[in-house]
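The passage that follows is intended for readers who have already worked through the single-chain material. We present the inputs for a multi-component assembly, then the predicted structure in tokenized form, and finally a short commentary. You are encouraged to pause after the input and sketch how you expect the pieces to fit together before reading on.
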Amino acid sequence: MKKTFVSILIGIMLASTQLCAQQALWGGQEIKSPEINSDNTVTFRLYAPKGGEVKLAGDWIQGTEVMAKNDKGLWSYTTAVMPSNLYSYSFIVDDVRVIDPNNVYADRDVATLSNIFIIKGGNADLYSVNKVPHGSVTRRWYESPGNEMSRRVTIYTPAGYESGKEKYPVLYLLHGMGGDEEAWMALGRTSQILDNLIAEGKAKPMIVVMTNGNVAQEAAPGESSIGLQKPNFMLPHTMDGKMEETFKDVIKFVEDNYRVIADKQGRAIAGLSMGGYHSLHISRYYPNTFDYVGLFSPAISPREDVESPVYKDIDGSLKAQYKNGVKLYWIAIGKTDFLYKQVTDYRQKLDGFGIKYIYHESEGGHTWSNWRDYMIEFVPQLFK
Amino acid sequence: MKKTFVSILIGIMLASTQLCAQQALWGGQEIKSPEINSDNTVTFRLYAPKGGEVKLAGDWIQGTEVMAKNDKGLWSYTTAVMPSNLYSYSFIVDDVRVIDPNNVYADRDVATLSNIFIIKGGNADLYSVNKVPHGSVTRRWYESPGNEMSRRVTIYTPAGYESGKEKYPVLYLLHGMGGDEEAWMALGRTSQILDNLIAEGKAKPMIVVMTNGNVAQEAAPGESSIGLQKPNFMLPHTMDGKMEETFKDVIKFVEDNYRVIADKQGRAIAGLSMGGYHSLHISRYYPNTFDYVGLFSPAISPREDVESPVYKDIDGSLKAQYKNGVKLYWIAIGKTDFLYKQVTDYRQKLDGFGIKYIYHESEGGHTWSNWRDYMIEFVPQLFK
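Having made your guess, compare it with the prediction:
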């Protein structure tokens, strides 16, 4: 009978691993890639005996790094010591971009899958799943009459929400162009960051509502009735006012369906890039709705070719928003971000109006690394 | 200002696509792969001008298919007409297994990522997101005192659950070896199948609870405090009785936290392979708990080296389970499944005991294609 069991196991293993090609084993040994060494250097490996050139691309690398091949056909590359962060990477084998076959952890950013790894010992400890109470993450559909559509939304509820009775504040968290309701969960590591900040007592327990800011879409690629189509970068209604106009549908859904503090002091809105743009314009278009606003590397100015009531009186509505009172208006951008000048101009405008805000300038540019850092800075300031 | 906006867009695009290598464009045209042609043949393409040999591997292919290279370095292969299904595939470029860089849809099965595509017009219409009311899917953590651990569980609640007051029946749905609480959602397409069957009136609205059957794990790979480790195939406590013994923790969590029909007629349990084994042994170990049992390609016999009260009196508890009444005991297996003989022997035993069951024999073997089909057969029979 023991024999039977072993043969079952082997059978199951063969069935399950039929698509695992031979490169998972190299010289009888399993290939470890990426290997995070004890000194926080990282070794990448790929078994490609016929490869003429294998390079490493990563979000910490300018261009690519050439990997070295040994006499067994195993390519490898070891980095310098890497600071704590979540990194993404891929290989380029003779000009073909490939995912590391030995790393199953991959996130989609817009229309590209990349592998990820984490170097702990700093901010990335907050991007990690730790032994703390975990919130729940629900993918749910709501009706948007303004878009005549059912739409998908990702909702984080903090640990204790389901079993409790108290009302919670809500952070509406918006993605950038090409993103969707999955973006902040994937490379944004929102549920991990919130779990950890709340467990450390650094952030108030809150609900986080991650909407899809492409109002022409029902849902993220692969999750809507258009099926498994290749994701489009530019969609109808991109930054044309429709997102702002119909945002009330999201708020109504959340406040009708969750135990929330349904007033201004219980609402925050923040977003990255296009989501920062949406946060700027939504918060002034509904000028007495949000006590907390976060603009992470935001785009600022509307398209000149767009006609929308949303953009009719930007300056007037900004002044009205400020007059109504905003507890925190937080702007963050990296020094090398291509939107730096736009943000500088916007700050000058706010200064001219006497509108108060907090400005956070970081190193770097338009990156997930910065947006995660901004979350860690921003979230503890909310609902205090 | 228009110029500024355009430059912003370009900047965002560059930032977002920095990792997309040149192969996404070929001769100025975007590469479409896979392309599902109007006759349901499928064309795969990969730009690999330096590649010496590119092959296609897929779950409908025995071995691999060799792709052809044109003078521009674009490799392609077109299949025969393919029946409706969800398929998975990858490329092998000079012996390196790679994901299709032009297809962002990839699912992890155990320790391997593969691309997926869908051919509609048959059962796969049920695997697709359609314009029907959608249930919610929540990743949540529960306490398992029996495992001294917080553990992650995936819960599908049907459309209308949150806004209603009625109580729902529950299907506990268990994965196979190497799987986890994500398996039935990924290649199993559970939320799509349930949404569609319920919308068509073919299945009763029900809650589906997808547990993690590796009781040594908190959660699926990447979702637990061990971090982004390479998934292990064989884990402690695999099929040693601990899953069965501690399953009461899951039931208690569900019945304490959801509006459910908390009695036998409101409970079903089903699973594939190791999950079929778990369903068999859980349902007889708690012999008056489930009115519906589904064994999909199940493993049957416990390990001989295991000492567990769960396996003390298998025959006696099976007879007790039958005597207590089971509305549906459903067994399904493919003709070429490596577990076929085990299942035949088990059926003979049940026949000998006079225990009634329904037997469904399909073509094929130990595959997700069969398990999705079994779901479509099984779920409409529940809670009637």
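Commentary: The helical segments of chain B are 2-16, 190-199, 242-245, 247-257, 274-285, 314-324, 340-353, 368-378. The longest strand of chain B covers residues 85-93. How closely did your sketch match?
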